[in-house]
Amino acid sequence: MTQKEFEERTGLKTDAEEYVAIERMYMSAGSMGKDEFCKRWRQTGKNPLTMALADTATSLNEMLGECRHELIDMREKNIEHARFLLGKAHAYADTDFRREAVRLIGEREAVRLTMEEGYPLWDEDRAFILAIFEDTKG
To answer: Would residue 11 be called left, alpha or beta, if left means φ above 0 and alpha means ψ between -120 and 50 degrees?
Structure first.
């Protein structure tokens, strides 16, 4: 919803800074339609509690964005660590390294990396792949 649409629906004038907070609340309102949101906004107006909630929603969204970036970085590091562990597993014929890679990134991803790196499949890898075929029969 644009600032103009909001003003037309509510009959209220807003400045750009205030509308940024309003838009964040609208985006956080989930599946609530524009008309319903504006109707409810008219009921609460510039209520200090409503504006405080908008500020809180903004802060939470910023924190969520930061957490997403941290999770992506952590996932990438885990994949690289697992790639190293799978290399050691094959170099030393030791499934303990493989087990640790699976713990870090999951069996599906560990099997994918094993195949991507061109390593021979372990019995555990074959069993995992066969289970997938079993699940998709029919």
So the answer is: left
Q: How many angstroms separate the CA atoms of 21 and 51, rounded? A: 7
Token duo for residue 102: 């699976």
pTM (predicted TM-score) = 0.59
Query: Which residues are CB-neighbours of 98 under 8 A, at least 6 positions away?
Result: 85, 86, 89, 110, 122, 124
List pLDDT tens digits, range 8-47: 998 888 888 888 888 888 887 888 889 988 888 888 766 6
Pull the structure tokens for residue 32: 């609530």
Cα distance between residue 122 and residue 33, in whole Å: 53
Do residues 82 and 50 make contact, with C-beta atoms less than 8 angstroms apart? Answer: no
- Type of residue numbered 30: G
Q: Which two tokens stand for residue 78?
A: 């885990």
List CB contacts of 86: < 8 A, sequence separation 6 or more. Answer: 97, 98, 101, 110, 113, 114, 117, 119
